[in-house]
Amino acid sequence: MINSMNNVKTIGITGASGALGKELTKLFRKKGYNVIGFTHSKPNSKINLESPNEWIKWECGKESLLKNHLKKIDILILNHGIYDLSRESSNYENSIEINALSNFKFLNLFEEIALKNESSIKKEIWINTSEAEILPALNPSYEISKSLIGRLVSFKKNLLNPDTKKKLIIKKIVLGPFKSELNPIGIMTPKFVSKKIYDLANSKSYLIIVSPNPITYLLFPLKEFFNFLYCQIIYKYKN
Asked: Span 10-238: which CATH code?
């Protein structure tokens, strides 16, 4: 948990050059953490109290090349994604690759690293799936990709084997619309969202929900509960 300042030293944030990534970086730096920022764009070489301690440039599809960097991280926050309104088939492919499959590759890599971790402190991974996982976002490609990563994370969480549960904590971040370059009419500010994420992460809850929509707070816990029951049935059937 993030309240154990003497134990947790390094935070990794993908999409660190985006609106929310910048605010999360500033917040964690102010709290005394080392931050590694992962970005697709050219990293800003300038390092200050509002930037990551270290920038890592990466590409989707080449997540495995980041393994040595991920080994240094205590909490990995997966925050990268695209929101493209194009009707082209390539947009659907890119959205699924970046918003869903890339995140899942990171999750699998970090699980592998956590299992080999000899420290008594659990690794943590927080995945930003968005409330578009089950609610309309006026963008079919975005909704499909977020629905996919949301289901993947839910099943991964509920089907973890006992050894992995001792080594890895998975949290799902469900966000409503916030202002960014991708969504200039978002209701919430990135600074408000980052603060809520930080505060709610100390909870034992798997879900971190930050949304102005009250329906989100009802639907997502219900959805996760039914996913849990479904996975329990799978376990019973297997045994």
From this structure: 3.40.50.720
